[in-house]
């Protein structure tokens, strides 16, 4: 404990974040192995990991880089589809699930990262809110491309089409891998909770270390004052691109987890559209912009909430929205903040008296 | 810093409480499920009750509840009452799996669902892993009944496309055909693909195949214009009636009046608000169910449904209604007891399902193959004078 206090504030803060995730993981793991967890919660564990990673990675763009991105679900979509495509093709070639999943992760992250760079190169050179507009368009474009893409495989190789499955002209031994709007069916179910948590740790490690590195300080200086940063010789575009592409690649990782948890992957407005991007942004805003630990907590609460409210039947989505607004007010309204500070001060004083 | 720490500690505590609360109640439900399993059959249902596909989920919910009420009033299945629990999936695969898990915690022994195709495939995967019997009222995609524990009440997509093409060809309705379909919808593309495939064997030609997506389904003038320019005498519309009513209206506005041909999703078009029913005259579509049929069972179903929920039942409600009765028949055939585990029930029902015959509202002498497909022939319905009429 003494060591804890000696450590600098930043390290301690990071450790608390890691510790929190680890404790949650342990608690859940013990509960699962002792059979005390409902099937509902067990089924939610893997998606939760994906949402946490999404929230943390978006926080890197929104909170640390200070740019608004409205297309995070698009990067997730890229990661999900490329990795599911890979896994589906390789399911017989690489029978070991661990190896296949690891490669799928790399491919998903790389594909999303490359998309991030491609989108970033022209846009991040500009001043102003252009990134928001372009990423918004990017998310919709990706979703629509996935909806018209048909890819099949037979003994003669791969076939592509953008009209319909029949235009592929598959031989008799062929199979359709991406079936347009019906997406990819039969992705191996490789995502597990343990792997998900490991990936959360990797994400946290990458993001937290990036923030506290030399590059991270450069990125934050761009956010705080672009002109000042430029005047001390910081390469604005380079650092912006760095933060944005890392953020995109991590979203790709979340996509990989998502795709390998469900039997069929369809690019619908619901899961990869504008709404999803906004949902991730809500995790970030509610958890505190620039606050990584807050993103983790907000992602957990907001994912669990609608499921835990299932008992309310028809009023479920209504109550969800009300709780949502209440949380937002509690976190961000000046009055609520003042009240919380007053209350916290009282607590502090009370403690001192006791001592 | 202190304050920040306090807040984060409080938040963390609150969060772990929520988690634990979730676990706690889940655990209790589990034990309840197994202990009270002996008194009732627990049937779960999954479908969208919120979101854009809510109409279909609601209809299934109502249809199923109506059947459950009737069966319970008549003394249940082998004297055992049924409990029905219907969960929302928002037409989303991920949410559907959550709903499935919720139902499992509740003690579900068999599943009537899910309503829409996409979620159905995902739920099918987990239901197969758990070996829980599932009967989808309206999941039309081929993959919905991929596993031997899954059956369906409705037609499959390819079957409808095939039958439509055959009907058009055999009755020489047209030589030039245009198709408009929703490329973002599994149901619509599934039918279209089978239709286009069969069209090659028939004596007509597809001169235009125009797609639209779920996000642009209010203006069809481009698609209609292309069909018109290609000289199509018949336009095939494999999608739901709400969009179809717009197509009919816009085609009339463009002075284009080919024969329109639809699938079972067209059922209900006359009930669209603000739609001029005369536009739908001579519209032909395949349907498993017509509310105006003079059949006694259908009349009773329609009357009961109208008095209980208001509004005419559509084919989704009818499919769900038949689904519950099919489950009842299979349970009786298998002489199942309500204290059997879901997995044992599934094994028993897999075989029983292929042996039962039910007289439902969507078909007479309805039987199932081991593949999960129902044996029913679609009726061809033609709209005449603002009313549905079955073409023999």
Structural overview:
The complex is a heterodimer of chains A (355) and B (392). Chain A is mainly alpha-helical. Chain A has a domain at 45-277. In chain A, the strands form two sheets. In chain A, strands 2-1-3 form a three-stranded antiparallel beta sheet. A two-stranded antiparallel ribbon of chain A has the order 4-5. The relative contact order of chain A is 0.17. In chain A, strand 1 (150-154) and strand 2 (157-161) form a beta hairpin. Helix content of chain A is 72%, strand content 5%. Chain A has helices at residues 2-6, 9-33, 39-65, 72-90, 97-123, 130-148, 193-211, 214-224, 226-231, 236-259, 269-272, 274-287, 292-308, 316-332, 334-354; strands spanning 150-154, 157-161, 175-179, 184-185, 264-265. Chain B has helices at 2-35, 54-73, 93-106, 117-130, 157-170, 186-199, 221-229, 241-253, 296-309, 315-333, 342-353; strands at residues 40-47, 81-88, 110-112, 133-136, 150-152, 176-182, 205-212, 234-237, 259-262, 284-287, 379-384, 387-391. Chain B has a seven-stranded mixed beta sheet with strand order 7-6-8-9-10-11-12, sandwiched between helices. In chain B, strands 2-1-3-4-5 form a five-stranded parallel beta sheet, sandwiched between helices. Chain B is globular. Chain B folds into two domains: 10-154 and 294-376, Response regulator (Rossmann fold); 158-287, Rossmann fold (3-Layer(aba) Sandwich). Mean pLDDT of chain B is 84; it is low at 14-37. Chain B is of the alpha/beta class. Helix content of chain B is 45%, strand content 16%.
């Amino acid at each position: 404990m003494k060591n804890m206090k000696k450590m600098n504030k930043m390290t301690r803060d990071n450790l608390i974040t890691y510790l929190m995730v680890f404790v949650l993981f342990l608690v859940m793991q013990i509960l699962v192995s002792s059979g005390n967890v409902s099937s509902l919660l067990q089924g939610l564990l893997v998606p939760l990991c994906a949402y946490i990673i999404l929230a943390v990675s978006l926080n890197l763009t929104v909170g640390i880089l200070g740019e608004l991105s409205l297309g995070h679900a698009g990067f997730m979509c890229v990661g999900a589809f490329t990795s599911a495509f890979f896994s589906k093709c390789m399911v017989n070639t690489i029978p070991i699930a661990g190896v296949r999943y690891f490669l799928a992760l790399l491919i998903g992250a790389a594909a999303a990262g490359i998309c991030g760079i491609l989108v970033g190169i022209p846009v991040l050179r500009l001043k102003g809110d252009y990134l928001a507009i372009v990423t918004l368009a990017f998310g919709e474009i990706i979703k629509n491309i996935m909806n018209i893409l048909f890819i099949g495989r037979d003994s003669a190789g791969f076939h592509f089409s953008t009209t319909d499955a029949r235009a592929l002209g598959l031989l008799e031994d062929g199979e359709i891998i991406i079936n347009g709007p019906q997406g990819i069916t039969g992705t191996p179910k490789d995502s597990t909770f343990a792997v998900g948590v490991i990936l959360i740790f990797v994400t946290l490690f990458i993001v937290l270390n990036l923030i506290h590195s030399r590059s991270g300080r450069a990125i934050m200086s761009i956010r705080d004052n672009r002109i000042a940063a430029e005047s001390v010789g910081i390469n604005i575009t380079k650092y912006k691109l760095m933060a944005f592409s890392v953020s995109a690649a991590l979203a790709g990782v979340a996509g990989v987890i998502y795709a390998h948890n469900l039997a069929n992957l369809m690019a619908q407005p619901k899961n990869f559209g504008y709404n999803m991007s906004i949902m991730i942004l809500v995790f970030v805003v509610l958890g505190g912009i620039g606050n990584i630990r807050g993103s983790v907590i907000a992602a957990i609460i907001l994912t669990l909430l609608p499921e835990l409210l299932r008992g309310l039947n028809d009023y479920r989505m209504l109550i969800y929205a009300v709780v949502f607004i209440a949380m937002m007010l509690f976190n961000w309204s000046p009055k609520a903040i003042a009240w919380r500070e007053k209350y916290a001060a009282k607590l502090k004083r009370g403690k001192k008296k006791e001592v | 810093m202190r304050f920040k720490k306090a807040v984060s500690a409080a938040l963390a505590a609150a969060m772990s409480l929520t988690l634990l609360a979730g676990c706690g109640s889940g655990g209790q439900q589990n034990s309840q499920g197994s202990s009270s399993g002996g008194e009732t059959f627990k049937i779960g249902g999954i479908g969208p009750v919120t979101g854009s596909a809510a109409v279909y989920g609601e209809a299934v919910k109502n249809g199923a509840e109506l059947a459950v009420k009737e069966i319970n009033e008549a003394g249940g299945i082998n004297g055992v009452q049924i409990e029905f629990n219907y969960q929302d999936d928002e037409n989303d695969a991920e949410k559907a799996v959550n709903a499935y898990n919720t139902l499992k915690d509740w003690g579900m022994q068999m599943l009537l669902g899910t309503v829409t195709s996409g979620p159905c495939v995902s739920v099918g995967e987990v239901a197969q892993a758990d070996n829980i019997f599932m009967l989808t009222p309206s999941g039309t995609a081929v993959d919905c009944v991929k596993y031997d524990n899954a059956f369906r009440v409705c037609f499959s997509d390819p079957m409808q496309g095939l039958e439509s093409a055959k009907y058009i060809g055999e009755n020489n309705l047209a030589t030039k055909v245009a198709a408009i379909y929703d490329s973002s919808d599994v149901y619509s593309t599934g039918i279209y693909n089978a239709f286009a495939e069969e069209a090659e064997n028939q004596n007509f030609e597809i001169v235009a195949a125009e797609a639209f997506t779920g996000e642009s389904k209010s203006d069809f003038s481009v698609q209609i214009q292309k069909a018109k320019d290609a000289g199509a005498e018949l336009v095939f519309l494999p999608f739901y009636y709400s969009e179809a009513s717009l197509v009919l209206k816009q085609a009339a506005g463009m002075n284009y009046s080919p024969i329109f041909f639809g699938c079972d999703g067209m059922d209900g078009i006359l009930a669209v608000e603000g739609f001029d029913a005369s536009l739908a005259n001579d519209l032909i579509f395949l349907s498993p169910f017509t509310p105006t049929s003079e059949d006694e069972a259908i009349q009773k179903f329609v009357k009961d449904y109208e008095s209980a929920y208001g509004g005419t039942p559509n084919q989704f409600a009818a499919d769900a209604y038949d689904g519950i009765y099919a489950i009842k028949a299979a349970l009786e055939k298998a002489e199942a007891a309500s204290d059997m585990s879901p997995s044992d029930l599934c094994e028993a029902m897999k075989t029983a399902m292929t042996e039962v015959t039910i007289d439902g509202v969507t078909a007479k002498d309805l039987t199932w193959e081991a593949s999960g497909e129902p044996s029913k022939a679609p009726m061809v319905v033609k709209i005449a004078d603002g009313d549905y009429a079955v073409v023999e």
